[in-house]
Write a structure and sequence with these properties.
Largest sheet of chain A: 2 strands, antiparallel
Number of strands of chain B: 11
Shape of chain A: globular
Oligomer: heterodimer
Largest sheet of chain B: 6 strands, mixed
Distance between the termini of chain A: 33 Å
Structural class of chain B: mainly beta
Order of helices and strands of chain B: EEEEEEEEEEHHE
Largest interface: A-B, 52 and 35 residues
Number of helices of chain B: 2
Radius of gyration of chain B: 31 Å
């Protein structure tokens, strides 16, 4: 359920801002939102479909519609008109940036929810390190994983993957949990989307190009997948089946009218066809999946399912426990409750912790962690069917670097301490924060 | 903070009785003739606990007493947070502590112990009384007493064996059913209008 305050006021005005931004880009650059490609251009695109990355179009005039920090400003300004937020400090004053009193789990509840991450349960990411003999845990865990795959038991796979997935089995396990199977009609559907890309040119295509060039192409791990990213994201924009997720998403897809038919309902269409306008960093949702899937239609299906199940919650406003607002509040509450000195210190120096961790959570840590660690994290997102682990990890990272953070005296210095997460090991951090910290 | 809202407003006995509750006006309702209540529906607005009391008609001349039929029903598991604050709630007579027959007056008591909320109430209150029982249906005799099997007519010359024909037709039917069942429900979604998707600007409405 989305609260009226979140649904009507802020999501509405935020969406309007996005629409205005896109419209002004159209008028400034004199580029239509969508147009049919001339036949020559269609042939050209079809020929270089597998190497769109070699194209170097002039994207200097395009700018991302919004970046995570713009979205954070909107979330910071969310207010409930029925909420008594007086000036005097009370037992419930929120010292963080989020001022909406949503219910979030505390550590005892998180320990119960994430019970399989406990100290006495074997984990991939901890108990498969080189010092640990594989007979103790890893061999048996792999054997169970193979059995789950043979039985094709989706529920068992979801339970199993809470302890992590062996690298060799991960692609199949994720497909099993997400109910993705490659029937001929799925491949046909993807080919149809590809045809739609060839036939119609959309403004969002340029936004996608720009985003891939700015983010994934600059990343040491993901630049090799640049072509795949175009093949997935351009098709994603044309996929009308994604519209069905708006039934449980508080956002609404943007609307437009066929040229010359303004106001006529039979000429009203959604734009882009899937209703999702990409923002800066959007391509990072796809990039890690390229390590697992190499067949474009399968990669596409996996990404689409991950988006409509999880990722959309990271950039739309709702009161869902896995929604970005709840994740931000969970992060701030965990920090405030269990690291009060650190929280207070960072506030005092003008470095509200959420300003640093927000970008990690919005991207589900993609591009910040090493890929093997990221995949272990995403295993748990699938296993627990929840994004709350992102907030817990963010708090665990702050806890890990608390000593250094206590010594900084500015936001920039705090950012510097937390700039490089590529050496972090995700599972030990989570385990220590949840199960081994004296509270 | 305990705001017992009490009072009696005379209203007609419609099957669905709708009331608008104000914070500074006491709230509840009374019925001109005793009714049997089936269901109470409302939209919560930051009320944490709900108590419902009814006054029932008694056959003797003793004055009717107020009886609690729902005590401190929890609408918000954590009164300080948003969970449950704006939910739609339905309460049925089987959830009540007492029989909901012969109800003359109904009183709603709303409690919200948290100081965080500026106001609390319930909205879109609807009260339903028990509807008439559905009429019993009598089935036609031939439904419950099927006729015995008829004798098969003698085979005409030159025609194939009917049982063989029927089994072949059955096989064909099974095949068509299989094909129909495997027909994919995936739609090749069209986003254009008659092949045209030329758009200029987004619409704000």
């Amino acid at each position: 359920m989305t609260l009226t305050v979140l649904r009507s006021t802020r999501q509405g005005s935020w969406e309007k801002r996005i629409l205005k931004s896109l419209n002004s880009m159209c008028t400034e650059l004199s580029i239509p939102l969508a147009r049919k490609r001339p036949v020559g251009e269609q042939k050209e695109l079809l020929n270089k479909w597998n190497e769109m990355g070699t194209d170097e179009p002039d994207l200097s005039l395009f700018r991302p519609v919004y970046a995570p920090k713009d979205f954070l400003e909107v979330l910071i300004n969310l207010r409930n008109p029925n909420y008594e937020s007086g000036d005097s400090l009370s037992f419930r004053t929120h010292l963080g940036l989020i001022q909406v009193p949503l219910k979030v789990k505390d550590i005892p509840e998180l320990k119960e929810f994430f019970v399989e991450l406990g100290l006495t349960t074997g984990q991939l990411g901890i108990d498969d390190s080189t010092q640990v003999p594989p007979e103790l845990f890893e061999n048996e865990h792999v054997r169970i994983g193979q059995k789950v795959l043979t039985e094709q038991d989706s529920a068992a796979a979801q339970q199993y993957i809470r302890q992590g997935s062996p690298t060799a089995l991960r692609a199949e396990l994720w497909a099993l949990i997400l109910n993705i199977s490659s029937h001929p009609e799925d491949i046909l559907y993807y080919e149809q989307l590809k045809t739609n890309v060839i036939q119609h040119d959309l403004l969002v295509d340029s936004l996608i190009y720009k985003d891939v060039k700015l983010t994934a192409s600059n990343d040491d791990y993901y630049f090799v997948f640049e072509d795949y990213l175009y093949q997935v994201l351009l098709c994603f924009s044309r996929d009308t089946s994604v519209l069905s997720h708006f039934a449980y998403n508080s956002a609404s897809p943007p609307k437009s009218y066929i040229r010359g038919k303004l106001g006529l309902e039979e000429y009203a269409v959604f734009y882009p066809p899937n209703g999702v306008i990409p923002f800066h960093g959007f391509s990072m949702y796809v990039a890690p999946l390229c390590f697992l899937y190499h067949e474009p239609s399968k990669l596409y299906q996996i990404f689409r399912e991950m988006y409509v199940r999880f990722f959309f919650r990271l950039h739309s406003i709702s009161s869902h426990p896995s929604g970005i607002v709840s994740l931000c509040l969970l992060f701030e509450t965990l920090l405030q409750t269990y690291l009060p000195q650190l929280f207070y210190h960072l506030r005092e120096i003008g470095a509200q912790p959420l300003r640093i961790s927000f970008k990690w959570m919005v991207r589900a840590f993609s591009g910040y962690l090493a890929t093997d660690q990221l995949l272990l994290l995403w295993d748990r997102i699938l296993g627990y069917n929840s994004l709350e682990i992102l907030a817990v990890l963010a708090a665990a990272v702050f806890a890990f670097r608390a000593v250094n953070l206590m010594e900084v005296t500015s936001l920039a210095a705090a950012e510097a301490v937390l700039a490089d997460l590529s050496t972090l090991k995700v599972m030990p951090l989570l385990q220590i924060f949840l199960f081994a910290t004296v509270t | 903070m305990n705001y017992p809202h009490t009072c009696c407003l005379p209203i007609p006995t419609d099957p669905a009785v709708q009331l608008k509750l104000h914070q500074d006006l006491p709230s509840g309702c009374s019925f001109q003739t005793p009714v049997t209540l089936q269901e109470i529906m409302f939209k919560n607005y930051y009320t944490a606990f709900l108590t419902i009391r009814v006054r029932q008609h008694t056959s003797t001349h003793t004055p009717a007493k107020w009886v609690t039929c729902l005590r401190d029903y929890c609408l918000m598991p954590d009164p300080h947070s948003e969970e449950g604050a704006q939910e739609y709630v339905s309460l049925f007579k089987h959830q009540m502590l007492c029989d909901m027959a012969q109800v003359l007056e109904l009183r709603l008591i709303l409690r919200q112990p948290s100081p965080l909320w500026l106001s609390f109430t319930v909205e879109e209150l609807q009260i339903f009384q028990q509807g008439p029982k559905s009429p019993s249906m009598t089935f036609p005799k031939w439904l419950s007493h099927p006729v015995p099997c008829e004798q098969p007519t003698p085979l005409l010359e030159g025609l194939p064996d009917p049982s063989r024909v029927s089994s072949e037709v059955q096989q064909m039917w099974a095949l068509t059913e299989m094909i129909r069942a495997s027909h994919t429900s995936t739609r090749i979604g069209r986003f254009d209008v008659d092949g045209c998707y030329d758009l200029n600007l987004l619409s704000y409405t």
